[in-house]
């Protein structure tokens, strides 16, 4: 089942990472349309995608950087991009978060 929680959260850097399943979240390369109960599935999968968008917007409004990856993406590429985003955010956020250390 798709989750609404952040898969990996770097709370101090405010970077939220989601690893989305190709089927559940409608990957453009691997999404499939089940033939049995097609209507029900289409509705369910559309709702997942709408919820993803809403979650992104909510987090962005709260100052988070949202990174989403598909389950088919190479783990080392994903790790590199996450590390780069966290490092960048830590640099950007340091001036105003000095007091929290
Ligand atoms: Zn995929």
From TrEMBL:
One GO molecular-function entry: endonuclease activity
InterPro entries: Restrct_endonuc-II-like
Alphabetic keyword roster: Endonuclease, Hydrolase, Nuclease
Gene3D superfamilies, sorted: VSR Endonuclease
SUPFAM superfamilies: Restriction endonuclease-like
Annotated EC: 3.1.-.-
Protein name as catalogued: DNA mismatch endonuclease (Patch repair protein)
Species for this entry: Streptomyces spectabilis
